[in-house]
Design brief:
Chain lengths: 519, 154
C-alpha cells in the first residue's frame, strides 16, 4: 500500500469536540485499528462547526469525506464492523460531509477551511489557497489592498461593525516610526465561539490576515490578545506562529518580499472589558484594563502611543480571500450596507448548536428553526439574546427580523459578534435582566460612575420590583438608571447594558410582575 | 507542576520576559501557573525587577479576575455563569456543586475551589465546566459528579 492509499480518519481537536470526548474517540480509533491490523492515519483536524454532531469523525473516501457523529468511544468497534473506513452505513452515518444540509446551505467564506484541513500543516493550507492572498497583496501593493478591503464592504466583526478599509487607511496615512497590528481575540461575548473555532481549526488564515494588514498599513509588529479561557487556542496559535516563523511567513523578509513582521501572543486575564479596544491596549502595556477616552483614536495613537490597527479575529481572517479573489467576490454576498458574510453562532437551548456562516439577509427565524431545529428541550422558544451580554432579548414575535446591522439597530438590538442564545419558556426574564446588571457590576472597569455604581443599584432595584416593593416608583427608577447609564458611560459596557434590561422589561413585563419570578 | 514560591524560579520567569514592564500581565500569568497564587513576596520581587511600585503591581493583580491571591484547593472547578449556559441549567448546576462540595461559588477549601467563569466558548454544548484547564460540555449533575471524582483521583 502506498502512502496515498493509507486511509485517513479525521477526529477533531477542537474545544467543543474535546469537551465531549474527542480524545478518547481518537484513542479508540487507533487502538481498534491496531487490533484489526488495519493501516490508517488519524488526523486531528479542527471543527466544521457542526457542534451538535461533535465529536464528528470523518473518513476520506476517494475525493470525498464521509462523516459520522456524534461518536462516542464505545461506538468505534461497531463503526469498524460497519466498514466506516469506506463510508459504510451505520446509525451514526451522516453521508458525504459536504452534503450535510446544515453545512451545504451555508455560505462559507472565512470558515471554509475549518475542519477540512490539518490546522498545523502549511502544505495543507497552501493546497487550499493559503498564502495566495498575501502573495497577491505583495504583488499589487499596499494601496491596492486597502482599496480592495474598502470596496469589499468588510466591516469589523468584533461587534461595532466599523468599516475595516477606512480604519486601515487612517493607520496607513499616519506618520510614525512604528505602527502595530493588534488582533482582538478576547471573544468575551457569551454565546460566541467563532473566533475560537477559527483559531483552533485554521490559525494560518488569521496570521495571513495579520501580515496583509501589516503590509497594507506599514506595521512591523503585531499582537494577538487571546482570552485566557481558551487554553487550546493558545496551544494551537503558539505552534502556528512558530511554524510560520520557520517557514518565513513571519519574521524578516517574508516570502522573499523584503517585508518584515512579527507576532507576539498575549493572554488576557479574565476581564470582559479588556475586549474593548483601548482597555486591551492598556492591558497589552501591562496595566489594568481601564478604557481610554477617545479621541485620540487608536488608529492614530494606539499601543504605546503609536498608530494601531485593532481588528477582530474574524475580520482579519476574512481578508486573505478578499485579497486572493477580489473585493467583488466578497461584496456579492449580502444586502444593502451589510456586505459579505457573518458567522452566526447558535447557542444555549438549541437542538443543533454550531457555527453558521451566512450572507447577510437571512432571518433570525430561518437561522433558529432551519439550522437550529428549535429548542434542545423541545419546549416552546420564549426569548433569544443576540449579540452577547450587551445585546437585546427578542421575543418569538420578532424572529422574522432580517439578520443585518441596520434591521437590528432599528429594533434597538445589535448583531454584535453574531452570538444567538436561545431560551425556552422556563426562562425567568427578570433574572436575565438582573444578570445583565450584575455582569456589568462585576466587569465594569470602574472609570464611570453610572456604569460602576449604576449597575449595582440596578440589581437592587430589579430585586425590589420583583418583590413588589414600591413597584411603580422602582420601575421608573430602573428606566432612569438605564438612561443615566446610556448617557454617562464612556464605553458600551455601561452604555449598552440597558439594552438587555430594557428589552426584557419591554417584551416580557409579566416576568417582573409580583406573582412571577424572584423565587 | 505547581511549587511554592521560590525566588530563583521567579527571577527566571521574569527574565524569560526580558524584564519588560509591559509584560506584567503575562508575567503574573506565569507566576500563577508556577506558584498557584500571588503573594506579597512575589509582588515585591516583580515590582523590584520591573522597576515598578508595589502599588502598581497590586493594582494590576487586583484588576484581573485570573490572578489569585490565595492558594486554591487541589481541584479548581469553574462553572460558566453566562447566558448560553444559563439557558441550559447552569444555575441549577451551580447550586448542585455548592451543595455537594460544601462550598459557595467564589470560595473553596483545601480540596476544591469553585469559581465563576464568564463563557468558555463552548456555548453550543452548554452548560460548560472547566476543571483544571480542561473544558467539558453538556454537564448535568451526574456528569459533574463523575468529572469531579475523576479529577480528584488524578
Ligand atoms: C465592553 C466591550 C467588550 C468588547 N469585547 C470585544 C471582544 O471580545 N472581541 C472583539 O473583537 N471586540 C470586542 N469589542 C469591540 C472592540 O472595542 C473593537 O471595536 C473591535 O476590536 C474592533 O475590531 P473590528 O473592527 O475588527 O470589529 C468590545 C467592545 C466593548 C465596548
Ligand atoms: S462604561 Fe464602564 S467599562 Fe466602560 S469605561 Fe465606563 S466604567 Fe469602564
Ligand atoms: S455561555 Fe457558557 S460557555 Fe459560553
Amino acid at each position: 500500500m502506498s502512502a496515498a492509499d493509507t486511509i485517513r480518519v479525521f477526529v477533531p481537536r477542537e474545544t467543543a469536540a474535546l469537551s465531549l470526548g474527542a480524545d478518547d474517540v481518537a484513542d479508540a480509533v487507533e487502538r481498534t485499528a491496531k487490533e484489526l491490523k488495519c493501516k490508517l492515519e488519524v488526523i486531528r483536524n479542527g471543527s466544521r462547526g457542526l457542534s451538535y454532531l461533535e465529536p464528528m469523525v470523518e473518513v476520506q473516501v476517494g475525493e470525498d469525506r464521509f462523516a459520522y457523529g456524534p461518536v462516542r468511544p464505545a461506538d468505534i468497534v461497531d463503526l469498524f464492523a460497519a466498514d466506516f473506513l469506506h463510508g459504510g452505513e451505520h446509525a451514526l452515518a451522516l453521508g458525504n460531509t459536504a452534503n450535510i444540509p446544515y453545512l451545504k446551505s451555508q455560505q462559507r467564506w472565512t470558515f471554509r477551511r475549518c475542519g477540512l484541513i490539518d490546522p498545523l500543516s502549511v502544505a495543507d493550507y497552501q493546497r487550499h489557497g493559503g498564502f495566495a492572498g498575501l502573495r497577491k497583496a505583495f504583488e499589487t501593493g499596499s494601496t491596492a489592498i486597502i482599496e480592495a478591503v474598502t470596496e469589499s464592504g468588510l466591516r469589523g466583526r468584533g461587534g461595532a461593525g466599523f468599516p475595516t478599509g477606512i480604519k486601515w487607511k487612517t493607520v496607513a496615512g499616519a506618520q510614525a516610526d512604528q505602527k502595530y497590528i493588534v488582533c482582538n481575540a478576547d471573544e468575551g461575548d457569551s454565546g460566541t465561539f467563532s473566533d475560537r473555532i477559527l483559531m483552533e481549526s485554521d490559525p494560518f488564515t488569521l496570521i495571513e490576515g495579520m501580515v496583509i494588514a501589516a503590509f497594507a498599513v506599514g506595521a512591523s509588529r503585531g499582537y494577538i490578545y487571546l482570552r485566557s479561557e481558551y487554553p487550546l487556542a493558545r496551544t494551537v496559535l503558539e505552534k502556528a506562529l512558530s511554524i510560520c516563523k520557520d517557514h518565513h511567513w513571519l519574521g524578516k523578509d517574508i516570502a522573499g518580499s523584503g517585508f518584515e513582521f512579527d507576532i507576539e501572543l498575549h493572554l488576557g486575564a479574565g476581564s470582559y472589558v479588556c475586549g474593548e479596544e483601548t482597555a486591551m491596549l492598556e492591558s497589552l502595556e501591562g496595566k489594568p484594563g481601564l478604557v481610554r477616552y477617545k479621541p485620540p483614536l487608536p488608529a492614530l495613537e494606539g499601543l504605546f502611543g503609536k498608530p494601531t490597527v485593532v481588528n477582530n479575529v474574524v475580520t482579519l481572517a476574512s481578508v486573505p480571500d478578499i485579497a486572493r479573489l477580489g473585493a467583488d467576490a466578497y461584496a456579492d454576498y449580502g444586502v444593502g450596507r451589510s456586505r459579505g458574510t457573518l458567522a452566526f453562532q447558535l447557542a444555549g437551548n438549541i437542538k443543533r448548536g454550531g457555527l453558521v456562516e451566512l450572507a447577510f439577509g437571512a432571518t433570525l427565524r430561518e437561522l433558529i428553526e432551519d439550522w437550529g431545529g428549535g429548542t434542545a428541550s423541545g419546549r416552546p422558544l420564549r426569548a433569544v439574546q443576540i449579540g452577547g451580554p450587551l445585546g437585546a432579548y427578542f421575543p418569538e414575535s420578532l424572529l422574522d427580523t432580517a439578520l443585518d446591522y441596520e434591521a437590528f439597530a432599528a429594533l434597538d438590538g445589535m448583531l454584535g459578534h453574531g452570538g444567538v442564545v436561545v431560551f425556552d419558556d422556563t426562562v425567568d426574564m427578570a433574572a436575565q435582566a438582573r444578570f445583565a446588571m450584575e455582569f456589568c457590576a462585576v466587569e465594569s472597569c470602574g472609570k464611570c460612575t453610572p456604569c460602576r455604581i449604576g449597575s449595582v443599584r440596578g440589581v437592587e432595584v430589579i430585586d425590589r420590583i420583583v418583590a413588589n416593593e414600591n413597584r411603580e416608583e422602582n420601575l421608573k427608577l430602573l428606566h432612569d438608571l438605564c438612561t443615566t447609564m446610556i448617557d454617562g458611560s464612556l464605553c458600551a459596557m455601561g452604555g449598552l447594558t440597558p439594552l438587555p434590561v430594557r428589552s426584557a422589561l419591554k417584551y416580557f413585563p409579566e416576568d417582573f410582575a409580583p406573582t412571577a419570578g424572584g423565587s | 507542576m505547581k511549587t511554592d514560591y521560590d525566588k530563583k524560579a521567579a527571577t527566571e520567569i521574569i527574565l524569560g520576559f526580558d524584564n519588560r514592564p509591559e509584560m506584567l500581565v503575562q508575567i503574573l500569568h506565569a507566576f500563577v501557573a508556577r506558584f498557584a497564587y500571588l503573594g506579597e513576596d512575589g509582588v515585591r520581587q516583580i515590582a523590584t525587577e520591573l522597576n515598578l511600585s508595589r502599588a502598581e503591581v497590586w493594582g494590576v493583580v487586583k484588576f484581573y479576575h485570573d490572578f489569585r491571591t490565595e492558594a486554591p484547593g487541589r481541584t479548581v472547578i469553574k462553572i460558566c455563569q453566562s447566558e448560553a449556559c444559563q439557558a441550559m441549567g447552569s444555575r441549577d448546576l451551580t447550586a448542585h456543586a455548592e451543595k455537594t462540595l460544601g462550598i459557595s461559588m467564589g470560595s473553596g477549601d483545601r480540596a476544591h475551589t469553585l469559581e465563576p467563569v464568564y463563557c468558555l466558548g463552548n456555548c453550543a454544548c452548554s452548560p460548560a465546566v472547566m476543571i483544571d484547564d480542561q473544558v467539558y460540555g453538556r454537564v448535568d449533575t451526574r456528569r459533574f459528579d463523575t468529572l469531579v471524582t475523576d479529577a480528584e483521583s488524578q
